[in-house]
Amino acid sequence: MSMTTNPYAQRSQYNQDAILSATPVRLLTMLYDRLLLDLGRAEAAQSAENWSVAGENLLHAQAIVSELSSTLRVDAWDGGEGLMALYTYVSTAMISANIHHDIERTRESIALLEPLRQTWHEAAAMLPAQAPVTNIGGTLGVA
């Protein structure tokens, strides 16, 4: 008997496998990619005054920033405290954007986080493929 597989279930399984097998470097870049995707979707939904979709995307973006914050080891490097302050600020901005339907706060969050996303991608591209990598709480270091 042939079983038909749901394409959505296949995609979900593929995404889960990609996350579970990702290196810490790749996982960090994936988180930043999704964070900016959520914020872009929230901005588009706010422009269309689709507040429920905007809220859903802002909440997901907040969850990603919360994860990045909770894993950040501020004492591991000189920029740790600054990055934590940025995460705190952006988190507050996203909450305000959601509560007050404030597209400018969403745009501000994008403007602050997009350069970080680019930097993490550039840093990941410079790491040797075989180098052991440690996740120092939202930042990366080569062991």
Automatic annotation (TrEMBL):
Keywords: Bacterial flagellum biogenesis, Cell projection, Chaperone, Cilium, Cytoplasm, Flagellum. GO terms for cellular component: cytosol. One of its GO terms (biological process) is bacterial-type flagellum assembly. It is found in: Cytoplasm, Cytosol. Its main location: cytoplasm. Belongs to the FliS family. This is Flagellar export chaperone FliS. It comes from Cryobacterium tepidiphilum.
